[in-house]
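Researcher: Go.
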Amino acid sequence: MKQLFDETFSKNRTLWYGYFKDLEQADLIEEIEGIIQTDLEVANDVEATSWIFYREDTQKDALDEQIRSSIMVRFADGQYDAQYNMSDFEFVVQRATISTWLDRLEKQLNSK
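Model: Structure:
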């Protein structure tokens, strides 16, 4: 994935990356983990670091608006937390799968 932005504001660093195909992408968790570890090696004096990984494709929601899903990871106080921003369609048909995937991501990151 390509880094899009890197911004630090008030001791909070945020990095944006694009783009992943979908959660079924082979080695996506390992790719995210590698990016995070590399970014933390050059971390400045911050209290928390967050990453936003954008999905390549967009989806239309019920209002016919384009939605781009994203994986968000935050590292603070030695703990990783992950969230997935999704379209209404993904929520209806893939929420359980996404939740399971996020659990795997968090466990992998917090095992280090």
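Model: The radius of gyration is 14 Å.
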